[in-house]
């Protein structure tokens, strides 16, 4: 399976975690799912945001909330992000699971079986 990566670079929160074009994740694949492991030393789950839409998985590293002049909070500051383009309809995007443990983010992407895909049709040969 081919993954294409795009997005900005940089080091997150000065921890040495870098969104470089190569080597920032390890993937493992079996018949049912693909697992991504991203080493993010010094970061906890409060620093990571994941979103999935269509065939794109977005991993963001966030810092502390910006303070507004009136004392309110603006929201978390995105320190860096990465978009992973996945094959269309290859994964069950609404069933992705993620966990953060000891600075390692593990993302499990369940595969869509060919028989469950709505864009794959079996054609009877006569």
From TrEMBL:
Organism: Digitaria exilis
Stretches assigned to the SHSP domain: 15-126
Official protein name in the record: SHSP domain-containing protein
Coiled-coil portions: none
Family to which this protein belongs: Belongs to the small heat shock protein (HSP20) family.
Top-level division of the source organism's lineage: Eukaryota
UniProt cross-references to InterPro entries, sorted A to Z: A-crystallin/Hsp20_dom (IPR002068), HSP14.7/HSP23.5/HSP23.6-like (IPR044656), HSP20-like_chaperone (IPR008978)
């Amino acid at each position: 399976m081919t993954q294409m990566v795009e997005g900005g670079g940089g080091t997150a929160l000065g921890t040495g975690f870098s969104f470089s074009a190569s080597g920032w994740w390890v993937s493992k694949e079996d018949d049912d799912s693909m697992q991504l492991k991203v080493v993010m030393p010094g970061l906890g789950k409060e620093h990571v945001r994941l979103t999935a839409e269509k065939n794109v998985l977005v991993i963001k590293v966030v810092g502390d909330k910006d303070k507004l002049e009136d004392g309110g909070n603006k929201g978390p500051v995105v320190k860096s992000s990465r978009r992973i383009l996945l094959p269309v309809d290859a994964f069950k995007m609404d069933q992705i699971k993620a966990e953060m443990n000891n600075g390692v983010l593990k993302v499990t992407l369940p595969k869509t079986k060919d028989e469950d895909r709505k864009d794959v049709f079996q054609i009877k040969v006569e």
